[in-house]
Design a protein that fits this description.
This protein is of the alpha/beta class. It is globular and about 35 Å long. About 35% of the residues are buried.
């Protein structure tokens, strides 16, 4: 994926949910077009599903963009389903979707793109860095400096490092007509397909 144009900020978001508790963690990182850290954030929610969490990750990022006047913006998410919810009519999560659309209009309608998980590695590392079990919920944590545990992912991202990934073939078959995103854990065939994406800022 090509980097954003000069003078543009890039927001990468990610989210995960513990099915048994319904606690979800969202995270995001703003970077300048050269890949430099601008600001990051994390937040834990209760009683959400994975699509709600992915939407909330984008929503929290949009709020931060408004607050910090990051108006020249490109947004990347690894959930094609959630991008479709925002860009087309969708009955579920209507309040959150409407708020996302409103804030995007306030920001001058930033570009919203799908990116595969390998290209979203920095936000993914941030999201996986701490457990939702021990984190206070509904508190936004602003991260103003580069975190040590994401520094390696940022360096790889700047240099376009490819990361191979193995995906169960049954996951692709089961999801192709039902959801544009691949499930994190789906039982089935042990046959695998190795894939890779090139990271770009």
């Amino acid at each position: 994926m090509a980097p954003p144009t000069e003078g543009t900020y890039k927001l990468n978001t990610d989210a995960s949910v513990k099915i048994n508790s319904g606690r979800g963690k969202v995270s995001g990182i703003f970077r300048y077009h050269r890949g430099d850290w601008v600001i990051g954030y994390t937040k834990v929610f209760t009683h959400v599903d994975v699509y709600q969490a992915e939407l909330l990750a984008i929503l929290e990022g949009l709020k931060i963009a408004i607050t910090h006047h990051l108006t020249s913006l490109e947004i990347n998410s690894d959930s094609a389903t959630v991008i479709s919810m925002i860009t087309s009519d969708y009955p579920r999560y209507s309040n959150t979707v409407a708020e996302c659309r409103y804030l995007m209009r306030e920001l001058g309608t930033p570009t919203l793109r799908y990116t595969c998980r390998e290209q979203n590695s920095v936000a993914d590392v941030m999201e996986r860095s701490t457990s939702v079990d021990n984190a206070p919920f509904d508190q936004l944590h602003i991260l103003r400096v580069t975190l040590l545990y994401v520094a390696q992912a940022m360096v790889a991202d700047k240099h376009g490092v490819a990361f191979p990934r193995r995906i169960a073939i049954v996951n692709i078959v089961n999801n192709v007509n039902t959801s544009p995103t691949l499930s994190n854990s789906v039982g089935g065939s042990t046959d695998t397909l190795q894939t890779s994406c090139i990271n770009a800022t």
